[in-house]
Specification:
By secondary structure, the chain is mostly helical. It is built from 12 helices and 3 strands, in the order ββαβααααααααααα.
């Protein structure tokens, strides 16, 4: 006997969500009405095997499509559909069909299946933490608890749009100094590997007494020729180390405390965190 997931209104107008076993959907609705409820939605509750089979059928390879910019666009579109009065499941289905292959499309497929199985929107989104972060999920949960999901979605969309705008400005401002630094490092590396050894050989032929600064420069050049592979390896290894460190709570705490104590940069990070916190609280 199939199990039906239903949403209904009681005599006082309060929403009721529950499940009921019945041979057919018509008999399920009759039984629900006899219980004193007005049915607004009823669907067959899928079993775990059905959900898994549905996910395997609809999910594809995910190499991207779950970035902040894509989620921001999705949030704005979802807020518009909800403001238009569409059911949340129907809105998610529409947006899922519009998405290209990627993490967001797979996450929306999972979300739709979870909602059909009786989960709330926040509970369903929490199943995809790589796409929807904790702030996003808790904002949705607050909207569900307060009965203002449409308003929360609009504010969340505005919040993420402002955040993405700020990120674009910061990245745009950082392009020039990063390019200058990379070019300077490349030029210095070329000088140390190609130019300085030529002068070193000349000095050795003339058997001149070299100043300490020149000897230091030649020593740096010799080490650069010998260990040139460390120039790209050190920043890449440092980046990987920081990523692994931030996987653990104590590592994140230690790294954040270190950043806050860095001159100039620490003050900027502190002000950014304060602005982000107050903006979130305002939302």
């Amino acid at each position: 006997m199939p199990t039906y997931q239903f949403e209904a209104l009681d005599a006082t107008g309060q929403e009721v969500r529950d499940v009921i076993d019945a041979p057919t959907e018509e008999e399920a609705q009759t039984t629900i009405r006899q219980m004193g409820y007005f049915v607004t939605k009823i669907t067959v509750k899928k079993s775990g095997a059905d959900v898994a089979r549905s996910q395997r059928k609809r999910k594809g390879l995910a190499f991207g499509g779950g970035g902040a910019r894509v989620v921001t666009t999705f949030t704005r579109q979802l807020s518009i559909l909800q403001d238009a009065g569409l059911p949340i499941l129907r809105s998610l289905r529409i947006l899922e069909e519009q998405q290209g292959s990627g993490r967001l499309k797979n996450a929306l497929a999972d979300t739709c299946d979870e909602i059909e199985s009786g989960a709330t929107l926040s509970e369903a989104l929490a199943k995809s933490p790589r796409v929807f972060d904790r702030l996003y999920i808790n904002m949705i949960k607050a909207g569900e608890a307060g009965g203002a999901l449409e308003t929360i979605l609009q504010r969340l969309a505005e919040f993420k749009e402002r955040t993405e705008s700020l990120k674009r400005k910061v990245k745009g401002a950082m392009i020039y100094p990063i390019v200058v630094i990379c070019v300077a490092v490349a030029i210095l590396t070329f000088i140390m590997i190609k130019i300085v050894p030529v002068f070193r050989d000349m000095f050795l032929e003339f058997e001149l007494k070299l100043p300490a600064a020149t000897e230091l420069l030649i020593a740096i050049s010799e080490n650069t020729v010998r260990f040139w592979f460390l120039i790209p390896a050190i920043p890449i290894g440092l980046w990987i180390f920081i990523k692994l460190l931030r996987k653990f709570s104590y590592g994140r705490m230690g790294w954040d405390l270190f950043l806050l104590k860095v001159p100039v940069l620490g003050s900027l990070i502190e002000k950014n965190c304060l602005a982000r916190t107050t903006r979130t609280l305002g939302t």
